[in-house]
Amino acid sequence: MCPGESATEQAAPVPPAIAEDAVAQIPAESDLAVDDEIHGEGDNSSINTSSTASLIDYWGPNDEKQNDALDFNHYWMTDFLNGELTLAPIGNTPHSALDIGTGTGIWAIDFADKYPSSDVIGVDISPIQPAWVPSNCRFQIDDFEKEWTWPVDYFGLIHGRNLEACISDVPRFFEQAFAHTRPNGWIEIKEIDTELRSQSKELTDDHIYRRWYTNLVAAATRLGKEAEAARNGCITRGMAQAGYVDIVEKKWKIPIGGWSADPKLKHIGQCTLEFIDQSMEGFGLFLLKEVMGFTYEEVVVIMSEVRAALRDRTNQTYYYLHIIYARKPGSPGQDSSDSAVAA
């Protein structure tokens, strides 16, 4: 059950989930061995967090290394989507866009550049966005789990990415999003199911991938956050119960490491490997040491095991990317793509 969700809400009908066998196999190279794409075992410069909010409100690191990782994540995901910033059919002149959990603001900036007539707002609890941005883009430091203060029925698109383990009350999140979405406007959520999987091997419960994921989910649960929203239907249910229609869910296997025989997927895999390597200390040390009670030495050993498994290309490691988008109903005459009016 998703945080904030009642048993009745959980039982409500939702759009059909994507079957596991509907996700295509990733073509693999014939001669796979240990990869040398991760250089060293990382450093510990990213273990300190700094934020004006409490660690429970925002537990992720926001130092330079982690911010670079966020930008790298944007790069590979946009590349995977052939340069598209959204899959929702928002038209050529979206009225306005709200980027939830904007991080470094890179998605909001790119969106504002692509749609110069759109009013673009990025919101995050951590002030790590640049000062120089397009004139139609601005950032607000706020907690999106609190009461939203933007105009109702305003945004032609509400966008969120990598919000797993950031939301305490999933139904309320989508209720607020629905209220502030423009009629016939769209919401789009991009989430990575962070469980590391093997395409070539059956993993036992004591495999490092299983142990790593189990502990991360347990830590998020202790913080009162939902860490499995994409895989357990929280997102699609939340959208449907809030009132969104035309819900579409897409799901892909994303390789980790350069083991794919497909040139594009090989490049994507090299990027995701670098992204995980850059970001692992920041969230891993906090969640496992501070929340779960592991010693520093134990966490370092666990992360070393994860890195070793990621470098072993015979594992054909991957995780799932989910993209779910939906529309707020409106009358035929209402259009979410009107010219923006500055707020």
Automatic annotation (TrEMBL):
<protein>
    <submittedName>
        <fullName>Methyltransferase</fullName>
    </submittedName>
</protein>
<dbReference type="Pfam" id="PF13489">
    <property type="entry name" value="Methyltransf_23"/>
</dbReference>
<keyword id="KW-0808">Transferase</keyword>
<dbReference type="InterPro" id="IPR029063">
    <property type="entry name" value="SAM-dependent_MTases_sf"/>
</dbReference>
<comment type="similarity">
    <text>Belongs to the methyltransferase superfamily. LaeA methyltransferase family.</text>
</comment>
<keyword id="KW-0489">Methyltransferase</keyword>
<dbReference type="GO" id="GO:0032259">
    <property type="term" value="P:methylation"/>
</dbReference>
<dbReference type="GO" id="GO:0008168">
    <property type="term" value="F:methyltransferase activity"/>
</dbReference>
